[in-house]
Amino acid sequence: MEEFWLKQAGLVRKRYNLACWLGYFLPCFLVFSLLVSIVLLWLRLAGRDLTLFFPVTCCLAVLLGIVVFKFSKKSFLSLSDALIEIESKNRLDSKLSSAYAGVGEYPEAIDSLMGDRVTWRKTALLTPAAFSCLAYILAYNYPVQTAYSLVTPASQLPEAVKEAEALIEEIKETEVADEEDLNNMLEQLEQLKQMEPQEWYEQNSLEALDNLSDKLEQSSKELFSKLQGLESYVEDSQLSQSEAESLEKSLESLAEGEMKMSPELRQELSESFKLDENKLSAEQQKKLRKMLKEKKDKLGQALGEKSSSSGKNGEQAGDSQEGESSQTCDSPGQSGSGEGQCSAPQPGDSEGEGNSEEQGDTPGPGRGGESAPLKLEEKSPKITSKISEKLNSLSDLPELDEFQTENLANPDESSVSPEGKESSFSPSASSFGGRAANLSEFTPGEAKILRKYFK
Amino acid sequence: MSENKVSEEQLIEAGEKLGELRRVLQNVLFSQEALIDSVITGLLSGGHILLESTPGLGKTELVKALSKAIDLDPSRVQFTPDLLPGDVTGNPVLEEENGKRKFVFQAGPIFANLVLADEINRASPKTQSALLEAMQEQRVTVMGETHNLPNPFFVVATQNPIELEGTYPLPEAQLDRFLFKLHLKPGGSEVLEKIISNRTLGVDISVEKVLTREELVKYMDMAKQVYLPPSVANFIARLVDATHANEGAGERIRFGASPRAAIALAAAGRSRALLAGRSNTSFEDIEALAADVINHRIVLDYRAKLDGMTGRSVVAEILNSVRPLNKPTPALLQDGV
């Protein structure tokens, strides 16, 4: 019987000691978990690397367990204590402790021991554990704005950097822009890339990237406009005095701005635009037309390719349909005001007229609005789309009308990507103003009225 | 390993003999098994008993039956206010022998193995003190001569709880000299019917002798050798100490039990174990005896009295709060039902 009772005492002892240890450990662990959760949250907010956090936390938890074990050991049951516990609960007349001390015999085994009656307090046991887990889960999954380093691989560059780089390379290949300016921009991008991966997504870095992208957008657009402007001088062989002066200014302006024209091209254009009593010879005209068209097409193509590739985000529905049209006016209704305004100086336009491309044609929210979490909104599509809008001459009303009504009539057959189509009816879309925001499609009646209106 | 001083054979023999004694007394006092066990336990412990009951419940019969069953020399003292100490302990009497006069000590009723001190609270404090001193010292000193009381010496004192007029309640310090304070309660109609069927007024009950005086002394010695596990000793100590605590049930006690209470509880526990034929004292023994041993040794607070609590109910509360194991149950475990 001795073996039986000692085994029972061993079991009781284990259970009591475990309960005793857990009784001390769980409240400490709860406090520990809360502290660790706060630290975890703080690290995520600070965008710190968490590689070492979890092993260190585990080690600390183990250390806490050991300290609690040492502390709670004085409350542990010994084998004789366990025998006393069994005999007192089972009314065994202290026979076990007496027998253990060598007085008398161990009693006969009994079926229902105290161990069967003692149960765990599940609520007290599980509550601290549950709260600890909850604290960890919340701290780990709570959406933190600057916690890019936690969920985004730190080595992954912001998409906008890559896109800006690609665009600069494209422009460089056209040999239209001054390589030095482009290199400057590349250098600035490189500086951003050289930063610590954790800093890529910090506010100041992202703002710097935004500024750079804006600068690239503005300057490339400006360069394109300048080329277009020069093209208008080639139409007539005889230029008025004012036109000749304007041409001279235009040629001079090629060496100004954030993105200057390449010196070679500038030189070539200056030579080609040499006027003889404000006249351009037929040969000059032909050569200039060819040269300007070629350069403009190259630049447009570079920007247009980016534009078409950016259609996946749907920000510019229908951008790619018009291809490389040289028209640069916004379509009616594209802006919030519904007015068609030219954004590029057309022959005969005065300076500044129609330069309202910022007005209403980019009604979509800014960075972060529709982007996937922890990913910059694609900036370059916005840049290129604006340019491509001008390139694609969306102001051509009959064409637009036809295109829109075609798409409305046959939404499935539209060449617009599904995303693009969807977003064209979204608040960020550049077409139809706000009214289209709540419409998934137009009724035939509505389409007819719109068609009539645009005509 | 502790040496068991009481052999298995001795235990069996003691168990049988004491069992016989119990049976005999149960035939005299019906339906008072607990009281009879307490009386035998007190006897084995060498302690004295204070019985509190209304008249006519069988106190005298119990003492008579006990003296007959064990072949003890009984005596009875009816305590009255005019009883003098000498009436209890004995007086020097002037005698003439061979023409010379001298004082000869004439032993009082206290010189008996089994003394029934009836209505002890009616005697004056002086007389009470004389008896209680003799109970404690087991000897009497008169005129500079010390006279030892017989062995075994066992006092069963009674007091009537309903008549307080003209009584001198025993002081707490003297109550401490009694091992047990027991309450004899009347049985129900079934018990009464049994008494009526088996008793005739004025006729003594025949009680068979089951134990000799020597055997009783032997068993008293044996009881002292019963093993008291350290855990049980610790339990007794914590129990008595709890009567001094300023928390729980201890808050309701003005004066807690003395160390004598702890010694008495241990001795009573040993005797109870022997009565049960066990070689060791158990928690159960202590729990069963605690109220009888402690209830008259504590002085309750006025709050306890206002709440209608008695010494026994306070001890019961203390028993509930003191665990046999001197370690708390972990908070994460509970006793399932």
Which helices and strands, and how do they pair?
The complex is a heterodimer of chains A (455) and B (337).
Chain A: H1 2-46, H2 53-72, H3 79-89, H4 95-100, H5 114-117, E1 118-120, H6 122-141, H7 148-151, H8 159-174, H9 179-194, H10 203-233, H11 241-253, H12 263-272, H13 282-310, H14 379-391, H15 397-409, H16 418-424, H17 444-454
Helix pairs in contact in A: 1-2, 1-3, 1-6, 8-9, 8-10, 8-13, 9-10, 10-11, 10-13, 10-14, 13-14, 15-17
Chain B: H1 8-28, H2 33-45, E1 49-52, H3 59-70, E2 74-78, H4 85-89, E3 90-97, E4 100-107, E5 114-118, H5 125-137, E6 139-142, E7 145-148, E8 154-159, H6 172-175, E9 180-183, H7 189-198, H8 213-224, H9 230-242, E10 253-255, H10 259-275, H11 283-294, E11 299-300, H12 302-306, H13 311-321, E12 333-335
Parallel strand pairs in B: 1-8, 1-9, 2-5, 5-8
Antiparallel strand pairs in B: 3-4, 6-7, 10-11
Q: Which band does the percent of strand residues of chain B land in?
A: 15-25%
**Backbone structural class of chain B:** alpha/beta
Number of extended strands of chain A: 1
Low-confidence spans of chain A: pLDDT under 50, at least 5 residues? 147-151, 307-384, 393-439
Give the % helix of chain B.
40-55%
Description:
The complex is a heterodimer of chains A (455) and B (337). With 455 residues, chain A is mainly alpha-helical. Chain A has 2 domains: 2-151, no CATH class; 161-454, no CATH class. Helices cover 59% and strands 1% of the residues of chain A. Chain A has helices at 2-46, 53-72, 79-89, 95-100, 114-117, 122-141, 148-151, 159-174, 179-194, 203-233, 241-253, 263-272, 282-310, 379-391, 397-409, 418-424, 444-454, and one strand at 118-120. In chain A, helix 1 packs parallel to helix 6 (122-141). The longest helix of chain A is centred in the first third of the chain and has 45 residues, at 2-46. Chain A starts with a helix and ends with a helix. The relative contact order of chain A is 0.08. The model of chain A is unreliable at 147-151, 307-384 and 393-439 (pLDDT under 50). With 337 residues, chain B is α/β, with parallel strands linked by helices. A 5-stranded parallel beta sheet of chain B has the order 2-5-8-1-9. A two-stranded antiparallel sheet of chain B has the order 3-4. Chain B folds into 2 domains: 1-201, Rossmann fold, CATH 3.40.50.300; 226-325, Helicase, Ruva Protein, domain 3. Chain B contains 13 helices and 12 strands. Chain B is 44% helix and 17% strand. Classes of the chains: A mainly alpha (455), B alpha/beta (337). At the A-B interface, helix 1, helix 3, helix 4 and strand 1 of A face helix 9, helix 11 and strand 12 of B.
